[in-house]
Please model this.
Amino acid sequence: MAGDARATQPAGWLSRKRKWLTSQLTHLRSGLRGFLRIMRANPLTLVGFVMVVLIVSVAVLVVLLPPIGQALVGHPVSILPYGPNYYPSPCPTRIVTTGNYSYPTCTLPPSTEHLLGTDNLGRDMLSRVMAALPLDLAIGFVVTAFAALLGGSLGLVAGYWNQPRTIKGAISVAILRLTDIFLAFPSLVLALAIAATLGRGTLPTVLAILLTWWPYYVRLVRGEVLVVKHQPYVTAAKAAGLSDLRILIRHVIRNILEPVTVYYTLDVGTVLVTFSTISFIGIGVPLDVPEWGNMVEYYQTQNLMGIAPWTILAAGGAIFVTVLAFSLLGDGLRDVLDPRSRRALAQAAVPTTVAAPAALGEA
Amino acid sequence: MVIFVGKRLLQLVPVLFGVVTITFFFTHVAVPNPCAAWTKARTPGAVQACVVTFGFDKPLSVQYTTYLQNLISGNWGTNSVQQPVLPSILRAFPETLELVFASLLLMVVLGIPLGVVAANGAGRWPDHLVRTFYLSGWATPTYLGGLILAIVVGPALGLPYTGDFSSAKPPGWEIVHMSVIDAMLRLDPGALADAILHLILPATALAFLNMGIATRMTRGSMLEILPMDFVKTARMKGLTNFWVLYRHALRNSLISTTTVLGIAAGGLLSGTVVIENIFRWPGIGTYAFNAIIGYEFAETIGIVIVFAVGVVLANLVADVLYGLLDPRVEWR
Model:
């Protein structure tokens, strides 16, 4: 058989390539089946997943459509109904009466022309909220990814080389002590202090979050590594003479990826909320950059909650919907991937007859 | 157990040292001279006088050792108008503690039953409903929830939404600076009702945003316990579902929930920075906010110390409670 194949395919690489492709396809198919299983286990996870996909697509369209339109039809195309900072002058006004005073404002309530209404300068709220989406989403993804990478690699080192009385062990202890110090900080307070001293701007805010966010991942990854490194397959790999680096990459990292991914999904939302909180306090993103947190802050200082609540609710609601999407997805994934709660869920769904004693013995 | 607690308290020392050092160098390196921001009269003379008074002209290492020496001897420095930091923090901290305890109470009273309901209906609509509820809390930015409660809900319900009392109290009236306890100590029912009314909105805001912590944990551990034999025995005895859930299963699942609540208390401290600022609560969150905005380094470091001690102690209390509730735990 093998000789036959070599005769028909002299290069040899083609059959290897095909074998590789088939194995990849099998992986993909089993991955897809696992995905469908997760989605079926809890409809809310599916809702979260669909919401995340929609939000990400809108963000991608907001960023990519103008240059694509420029290239194809010669002028930028946008899915934003208006420019985020465009305001008609003079703006269409409405009369607001509070107490004994009546005065004109540019704040128009939601209508078919302005789906989310307009703000105190007559700017379209829907456009503003959508224009802020790419920045906020990117911050959530990128800052969390950096924190996970930094904290994750430190946790990997601290978990894998923890033999006492060696130089590597001493490094691990040093990492853990530093992590303890940073974990004792209330992260928001430290982030605020850093953001305040670095001055107002997008980059300082990102730095402030990054500097306070990595310790969680050290704890998470270290705990997982401590479990995985005593598994028989790691021992087998060691016995086979594989280098530490190879064991880490091929065996350890692959097996801790699942919990880290789940935690990451949940964390994207948390980072987004923290980022917008720093902006809300007025030491984050400057006002000329559309961002949800500083929109809420600006409209609140303009006292729009009473006369035009849709401005604050549109910006705050955007954060709420985005974070809710990631939380629904992450929370559902956590349930399915966590073996303890998976077993419990299975038993809660199926009348407990035979499964319980077996599971208890296993635990 | 005493040895365990002692050991953990000893570990607090290097953590605090690290926290102080990191905050000190962050603030002083990023802003070497805050005097320009501090002095109202922006004349070179005033700024120079301020620099000399606070020693910002000295090398950083000298400033650091001076600060550490003062800190150890109990002098936490002064702010830009020469007010000592420590008394202000000691005065503000109980107010925050009161707020945190009130929210913890709400989280226990509302969050734990919700978790039981979710576990009882796992995979069905009560579960989904509860999950949507606590994830909504999680997804609401603190400031948005606070603003809606303060500006929309508060006036609509006629609840007070600023400060901890309707009227200023005469100096010396407040004994421990926790409004409810002060009113009790003064045997003043009017002030007590007033203090409780003032607590409702900020405590609700803080609790709603963190409701998921208690609910999720209760649901998870209930799901682990419900299939166990003793629960089945209770059911076979013919006990009602309510009795089985709350009397037998919940008792055993509360162990992990208690631990998580202890850790959550540390996290609630962070939330107070925004919530207190919105509700004008005279606690350490408002103090922290003003200190950070105003480049008050001595105040900022003092707050970070207090918060770090709070977080570490909350974790310690959680561990001790866990050991007390579950006799199988070894103290080590």
